[in-house]
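User: Could you check the structure of this?
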Amino acid sequence: MPMACSASLAASSDVEARTDGLFGFSGPLRVPGVDARLLDPRSTWRDPSAYDTNARERAQRFADNFAARVGDVDAHVRAAGPRG
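Assistant: Sure, the predicted structure tokens are below.
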């Protein structure tokens, strides 16, 4: 399922969702016909600690690039980025 469809489902008030603590996106916990393990990016990695390390590094690179290029955007735009 494309990420946009997944995010759209998660936004629905009658769909149970999880919010990623680092990146802030929401995704559904269940989608008919989709293995629930595929809906949690961390669970798709053989080594969950490697996922955690990689996610933190990506979030930091995003934050660094964002700050270097768009340091004067509105606070709500900055808040939408990773929390890393």
